[in-house]
Amino acid sequence: MSGRKIGDVILELQNISLRFGGVKALTGISFDVREHEVRAIIGPNGAGKSSMLNVINGVYHPQEGRINFRGEERRKMEPHRAAMQGIARTFQNIALFKGMTVLDNVMTGRITKMKANFLEQAIRIGRAGREEILHRKKVEEIIDFLEIQHIRKTPVGRLPYGLQKRVELARALAAEPSMLLLDEPMAGMNVEEKQDMCRFILDVNDQFGTTIVLIEHDMGVVMDISDRVVVLDYGRKIGDGTPDEVRGNPEVISAYLGVAH
Amino acid sequence: MPEMASSRALDTFPRLLSYHAQVRGDRPAMREKDLGIWQTWTWGEVAGHVGALACGLAELGFKRGDNLAVIGDNRPRLYMTMAAVQCLGGVPVPLYQDAVANEMLFVLQDAGIRFALVEDQEQVDKLLELQEQMPQLAHVVYDDPRGMRHYNQPFIHDIRELMAMGRIHNQNHPDFLADEIALGAADDIGVMLYTSGTTGKPKGVCLTHNAFISAARGGVEFDRLTADEDILSYLPMAWVGDHLFSFAQAMLAGFTINCPESGETVMTDLREIGPTYYFAPPRVFENLLTQVMIRMEDASALKQRMFRYFMAVARRSGAEILDGKPVSFADRLLYTLGNFFIYGPLKNVLGMSRIRVAYTAGAAIGPDLFRFYRSIGINLKQLYGQTETCAYVCLQPDGEIKFDSVGKPAPGVEVKISGNGEILVKGPMLLKGYYKRPDATAEAIDADGYFMTGDAGFFDDDGHLKIIDRAKDVGKLANGAMYAPNYIENKLKFFQHVKEAVVFGDRRDRVCAFINIDIGAVGNWAERRGIAYSGYTDLAAKQEVYGLIQECVEKVNAELVSEDTLADSQVHRFLILHKELDPDDDELTRTRKVRRGFVAEKYALLIEALYAGRKSQFIETQVKFEDGRTGKVAADLQIRDVKTYPAGRLAA
C-alpha cells in the first residue's frame, strides 16, 4: 500500500540491562529499528515495555549495554538531547498542559526549533515575531493533518480522552521528529477512536517517513500496522520478527495465554 | 446586482461570472479557511481559475453535453468546477458526499458519469471501489492531495495539474474559452440535481440556466440582496438549497460565499464570518438553540434570571418590533435594554449579529423555535420549494410572517390548488424534465404546464400558503377521519427531546408512534437528574425517559384534539426505538427525511406489537457503520399507552 522504503538500521540496542535497586526491569535485550519502519514492542503488563522506551529516549540509563543511534554510540543521554536528535514521544498517561489550548500545547512541541532567545521572545522583538509565524504555520499543518481544527482553541482539559491522545501526537509531530516513540497510543480508546489513531499513525509514517516505535496492548492493532514486532516478558526478549512470525512463536503464545502445567 | 437592461447578455452562469470579474474583479467571491487563516479568492481570480479548469477539462476530452460528478464538502474549487463545466456546455451533477459507494452507484450510472471531480482520498476510494461497475468512468480529479501520493493510476489527476494543463491550453487556444461560453444558451441545462428518493430510485432533475437565474433573481430582488452579502456555504452541494443560495444567487448578486474549514468547525466559522444572509434547515436552528439552552443552564444564577426576564420581554414584543408593528413605549425600552444585555451577546455567540435575512426550509419549523429567533431580532423567514422548482415557490415577505404558513407565491411564480388539495406550480424556475425519464416528466407536469408538487395545502384568507402534508401520505383512519402523518410527526418533533418520530395509522383504528430521542438534549436532561446511561440504546430504555416522552406525546394529543378534523389522530401508544434512524441503514434519505415504507417494513414486528397491545417487544436490528461494516443492536422495547382526550370536548 505504501511507497515508503524501509531503510538501514538507525537505532541499535545491544544487551540492554536496567535495574532499579534489586529489581531487574530489563535483562540483556537487543534489537534494532530500521529507518521508516513501524516497530512495535509488545508484552504482558510489567514486561518492561515502557522502561524500554524510556531507555531509548534517555530518561533511564541502563547499567549495561550499548545504544547506537544513527551511528553514534551513547551510554548516557538526557531526554532533551534525544529531542534535539529528532526523537519525540507521547506518554501512556497523557502529559499535556491541561489549562492551555490545543494550539498552545502543540506550539510547545516547536520549542526545540525556536532560535530566538528568552528576552526576544518575552518582549517579542527581533526574530521572535517572524519565527512565531513560521512555527504557527507548521503547527497549523499538523492540526490540519490530524483533523483537530475544530478544537484548535479549546483548553485540553475539556477534551475527551481520545482527542487528548491525538493532541499529544500532534505535539510530538510538531518537533518534526525522525523517530516517534508512542507509549500505548490507543489505550482506553473505543474501536472507532482506535481506527482513527491507526490511520493517523500510518499516515504519519507514510507522509513524513517518520520511524515509529510503539508500545501497544491491542494485539489486533499491533499485527495490523507494524512491520516488525519485538515481544518482551519479565524484562526479557522472547520474540522478534514480522507479525506473522511472532504470532506463530510458541513462547509468545504461552506468555500471552498462559500454559497448562 | 446586474442591470436588467443587460440581462440578455447575462443569461447563463459563465456570462454572469465574466460580468462580475469585470465589474468587481477585486472584490471577494469566495473564502475558505486554510491552516487557520481565511483565504480569499476575488471574482477576478475565480474567473481565472474557472477558465483554467474549463480548459483543463477540455484537454481531458470533456465535451458539450457531458455530465461531471462533483462529490465533496463545500470547497471553493468544487464550486469553481461547476462553473467550469457550465462554460463548456456540460452539466455538473453534485452528489451527497456522505453517501457510501453503493448508494452513489445508481446516480453515477444513471447520469452516465465519465468525469468526476472529488474532494479527497475518501471520495476517490469510493469511486475506485465502483470502477468495475462503471466502466465508462474515464477521469477522476481530486482537490485535496492529502494521502494521494501513492495513487498513480493514469486516470486520477490532481486539480492543480488539471489547471496547469488548462493554462497551457489557454495559451495555445486563446479564443477557445470565449467561444465555448458564447455557444451556451439560457435554455441549456445548467445543473442536474438528484431527488433524494423518499420513494423509489432518485431521479435526475434537469434545471436550466434560465430556471436558476430566474429563481435567484426573484429571491435577490425580493430581499434586496446586494453584492456585499456574506453567506456561509456548509449545506450539501447536492441539495437544491445550497445550489440556489451559494451558487445561483451568489453568481447573480455577486456576493461572497464562505466555506467552513470542516464539518465540525461550522459553529466557529459562523462566528468568525458573521454572515449577513443565512440559510439552514430547521434542525440546524434547533441544534443551535439546544446548545444555547444547555449552556444557559450552566450559567450563574444572575445570568439565568436576566436571561429568563429578557426572553419573556422578547417573546412579548420582539417579533412585533421586527415586523414594525406598534409596541408600547415601555416594552420598546425594555427590549432595547434586553438587546444590550442579552439578545446582542446571544446573537454574537450564535454568529448571527450581522444577519439581515435568514431562511429556513426543507421541513416544518416548530413555532416556538421560529418565534425564539424572530423575537431576539433575527429576521428568520420560511420559504417553500422543491428540487424541481429550484427551491423557489413561496417566500415570506418582511413584516408578514405567520408561524404556520410558508408565505406568498414568490415573484414570477403561479401557484394554484388542484381539486384534491394538491399544490400546483408554474413559472420560469420549473425543471426542464427528469433525466432520461420522459415518463416521470409527463407524470409530474400537467397539460397546462403546472408542476404537481405532491404536497397537500391551502391558501389562507391573506393569500398565504399552508402546507398540510405530502398528498400521498394523507390517508384515512379506519373510521374515515383524515390522517396526516407528517403533521403529527412535526408536532412531536417540535419538542427538543424528540429527534425523529414516525407515526402509523393509515386504515387503522388508531394512531401509534415510534420515537427517536435527541441524545444531546435528553442526555443533558438525564445528567442533571443523575440518571446514568451508557449510550443511546440504554438511555432510550430508561423509565424516566419514557415518562418525559409520554408528557410530550400527551401535549401533542391535547393540541390535536383542539383541531377538530384531526381529533381522531391522537397518538394512543408509543415506543422509543433502540437505535437512531440513520441514512446509512436506509431508514432516512440523505436529506434526513424518514422513508416511511421502508421503516414500516423493517420494524413490522414493532408495529404489530403496538397494535396487538403488548407491553414490550424484543427486537434485534442490523446496523451499518460508516465504514460499511455491520453490527447488531438488540433490545427489549417497552410500549407505553398514552392519555387521549375525548373528541369534541373543546369543540362543544
Structure description:
The complex is a heterodimer of chains A (261) and B (652). Chain A is α/β, with parallel strands linked by helices and 261 residues long. Chain A has helices at residues 49-56, 79-84, 102-108, 118-123, 127-145, 161-174, 191-208, 219-225, 243-248, 250-257; strands at 9-20, 23-34, 38-42, 64-69, 72-74, 87-90, 179-183, 211-215, 228-233, 236-241. A 6-stranded mixed beta sheet of chain A has the order 6-7-8-3-9-10, with helices on both faces. A 4-stranded antiparallel beta sheet of chain A has the order 2-1-4-5, with helices on one face. The radius of gyration of chain A is 19 Å and the shape is globular. Chain B has 21 helices and 29 strands. In chain B, strand 20 (451-459) and strand 21 (465-470) form a beta hairpin. Chain B has 3 domains: 5-207, Rossmann fold; 282-470, Rossmann fold, CATH 3.40.50; 475-641, ANL, C-terminal domain (GMP Synthetase, Chain A, domain 3). In chain B, helix 1 (13-23) crosses helix 2. With 652 residues, chain B is of the alpha/beta class. The longest helix of chain B has 23 residues, at 301-323. Chains A and B meet through helix 5 and helix 7 of A and loops of B.
